[in-house]
Amino acid sequence: MKTKLSLILIGVLLIVGCTKSATELLDRSQKSLDENQVELAINDLESLLREYPTDSLASLAQYKLATIHKNWKNDPHSAFDALQKTVKNYLGSIQAEQAQKELNTFSEWIINKSEVLRKQKLIKESIQHLIYMVEKFPTNVLAPKAQYLIGDIYMNDLRDFETAVKQYRKIVDNHSGSKQEPHAQFMIGYIYANALNDFDKARFEYNEFLKRFPKHELSPSVKFEIEFLGKDINEIPTLKHITS
């Protein structure tokens, strides 16, 4: 009987000894972040929230999760979710106030973050942020810009012209009246004319542009493109000097 009690006591002491306090978990998560051990940091913060949900450090732990998903994991979905939990579960805290500010400007942050990722050549992550933007906030004023940037990335970074056309087409179909719509219509014609060499489709798309946006600043360029579709540069008087 004594042996059994001793074993139980040892087990309890081991459990107590292995349990980390909220402060220890928070400190360890920061140390893991400093060493680029992101998953370990996330695990410790989630443990803190699970084991000490009412602790004064819980709001900070929840907000730090949002920061990690934004800046280390490049995961806008999880970042948005963590910010919402910070506001909902820790209303009145400094972290909740800051989280609400970030939620209010989340669409702007996505656009800026995608551009940073693009400059860092993290093209997949950049596109993922923009796709999240147009799917999560389809009626946001920045949604057409996000969609246009997706087309631009496929056009200029990935050189995937067929996909670029499809992405630009989404602006014409889903964001009629936006500032990006005429530019997207122009780019569809431009890709057909200068990248895919499909001059019939290029002429059709350019004529659509002129029909819908006759007074747009790009109209002279469209008319020029139509006039010289498929012609060699030496056949274009205004450009002939470039090769002479």
UniProtKB/TrEMBL annotation:
Signal peptide: none annotated. InterPro entries: TPR-like_helical_dom_sf, TPR_rpt. This is Outer membrane lipoprotein BamD-like domain-containing protein. It comes from marine metagenome.
